Amino acid sequence: MQIFYGAYEEAIKSNFDGWMNFSYSQNENRESFSTAIFRALEFPEVRSENDNYITLHQILRLIYIDQLSPVENLFKFERFDPPLMKQAISELLLGVYDDSLYTDRIAHRNAIREYDEKEKQFKNISKVFGSTGNETSVHKVLQEIEDGKKELDLIQTEIISLREKAVVKRRITTPLKIEELQNQLSPIKADVSKLKSEIKYYELEIFDSKQFIDSLQKRSSALDNSILTRNILGELPLTNCPKCLSPLNNNVQEGHCSLCKQPLSEEEEKTQAKRIKQELELQIKESRKLLGEKEGKLAEFTSNLQPLIVKARLLQQEIDVEEKESKPTRDEAFDALLVRKGAVENKIEFLSKQIKASEMLELLRKELQELQARIEELSQSIKLKTDRQKQNWELAISKTQSIALMLLRKDLDRQAEFKTGKQVEIDFAKDTFSLDGGNNFSASSNTYLKNSVRYAIFFASLEHSFFRFPRFIICDNMEDKGMEQVRTQNFQKTIVELSNAYDVEHQIIFTTSMIDPTLNNTEYCVGAEYNETNRTLHV
Predict the structure, then answer these.
(1) CA atoms lying within 13 Å on the CB side of residue 376
(2) 435 and 408 in contact (C-beta within 8 Å)?
(3) For residue 538, with 0-12 CB atoms within 10 Å meaning exposed, 13-18 middle and 19 or more buried, which class applies?
(4) Burial of residue 279 (number of CB atoms within 10 Å: 0-12, 13-18, 19+)
(5) DSSP letter string over 93-131?
(6) Spatial separation of the C-alpha atoms in residues 452 and 446, rounded to whole Å
(7) For the chain, what is the largest distance between any 2 Cα atoms, rounded to a whole number of angstroms?
(8) H or E segment and range at residue 507
């Protein structure tokens, strides 16, 4: 679907400019036209409990009353129609669906799943470490490394002291160990430098991305606030230029901007705002995806840096010793120090490798605590929102039932139960409705009952602002299933009278071949009247 953000007159003049393309389905990189239209209508993104997206097509099933669907079905008939889908549609249109509640439920489910996975990882790693007697605390491992470095410094001091006392014998053919150590150190230092450079780069990138996303969110929020403020306060005239504060020329043609003198209208401003809102949401979505990828890279580089730094420091310390003194004649004490030195170096190298696993455990421990707090917070939020949702649902159903009974009682004396009925039952998930537990009436009475329920939902939406039903209904079965002329004309008049009783802007479209004489050729009629001599289709 191609959507034009602007006036209809501008749309038909433009071939490309201003039009945006949207597909039927959506994925991570593109939005569907249903999502775009729902955003324009200020509908939340809705999915049923089995993660099926609610589309514009599904919404129309409760707005359009057709002739082909079975008369006992509340929704427009569709094969493979899961109950949860119909329940989600009704919750959305009756205004009780809370997108933040759905988001909380998904987040709660994901948090529990993530907690279980991380708890399993934590237990497995802890079990392995426990069986080997290794320390799992990062702080303690770092302390052991620090203690090892201090011990290594003492050993090296003793070695230097012994070398100063010993008679040094050198052989020209003996290769210096320092060259070997430098050959080992050079690539490690290059890797450390490269990792630090990558870390700095991604830290800056992440900072910029967060700033950019924050800027987009502020712009989106400011756009909503601007529209809301204008709706509440009305248009506030500008008397001075907002930049130089000079008085503005008031001789501006009506309907034009006092600053740029361009023609404008409230509808054009709203349309422009919706177009900008659409673009901002797409940018935010894409930016968040890129931010996650950058954060993953940063975590990978950071975890790989520490072991390399430790290894480089050990090699550098050994080079420093070798540079100060050549290898002396060794005695038993000297050999013992070298053995101790090797043992300590091996321990430090092992501990540096262990840091990564210990950091993982520490991170898992912290994440488990945060997830537990998040789960408890979401549980409380879900309970509060569920209670509020239940209250709105009861209010919406009660008003719908009340209006449906009123419409039934205004019927002609064709179905006695319509005059004496006490309770209209509606089950959206099962796609059924009934009067006092039954709907075993004639086909025409069942049609009247169905239309009464559907129109009752529509009229209830005019009374309660929390409804999301778009205050529009189209009915193509006013005299379906053998409805007699006088009965359908009575229903037509009832609908028009009820419509005129509401001050809320709304639209009703119904088709009929048996229009009530008092409504014929009035402002309510649209288009020509068709008969045997003026057919809708010509061969």
Answers:
(1) 5
(2) yes
(3) exposed
(4) middle
(5) HTT---HHHHHHHHHHHHHHHHHHHHHHHHHHHHHHHHH
(6) 10
(7) 128
(8) strand 507-510
Kindly report the length of the chain: 539
Amino acid at 244: C
Nearest to 463 by CA among 504, 495, 424, 499: 504
Distance CA 509, CA 524 (A): 9
Two tokens at 349?
A: 């190298």
Instruction: Please report, for residues 57, 72, 467, the alpha-carbon distance to residue 94 in angstroms, rounded to integers and kept in the order given.
Output: 17, 21, 5
In 3D, which of 388, 362, 340, 322 has the Cα closest to residue 126? 362
Helix ranges restricted to H, 410-442: 416-420
- Tell me the C-alpha distance between 394 and 414, whole Å: 31
Closest residue by Cα to residue 498 from 481, 473, 526? 473
Decide: residue 16, CB within 10 A, 0-12 exposed, 13-18 middle, 19+ buried.
exposed
Instruction: Give the pLDDT confidence of 267-279 residue by residue, as tens digits.
Output: 666 677 777 877 8
Structure tokens belonging to residue 134:
């290794």
- Rounded to whole angstroms, the Cα distance separating 403 from 489 reads 19
What is the rounded CA–CA span in Å between residue 113 and residue 95? 30
Proportion of the chain above pLDDT 70, given as a percent: 82
Which tokens in the block code for residue 169?
Answer: 């014998």
Q: Which residues of 101-134 are buried (b: 16+ CB within 10 A; e: fewer)?
A: bbebbebbeebeeebeebeeebeebeeebeeeee
Query: What percent of the chain shows pLDDT beyond 90?
Result: 29
Q: Cβ(84)–Cβ(429) under 8 Å?
A: yes
- Residues 6+ away with beta carbon under 8 Å from 494: 407, 410
Q: Under DSSP, is residue 53 helix (H, G, I), strand (E, B) or coil?
A: strand
Cβ atoms of 423 and 56 closer than 8 Å: no
To 10 degrees, what angle do helices 443-463 and 485-500 make? 0
Distance of CA 510 to the CA centre of its chain: 37
Instruction: Locate the domains of the chain by residue range.
Output: 61-93+411-539
End-to-end Cα separation, the chain, in angstroms: 31
Q: Which residue has the tokens 């389905």?
A: 25
pLDDT at residue 441, rounded to an integer = 92
Residue 495 is predicted with a pLDDT of 97
Mean pLDDT on 367-388: 91
Q: Count Cα neighbours of 429 within 13 Å in the Cβ-side half-sphere.
A: 5
Burial call 203-219: b when 16+ CB within 10 Å, e when fewer: eebbeebeeebeebeee
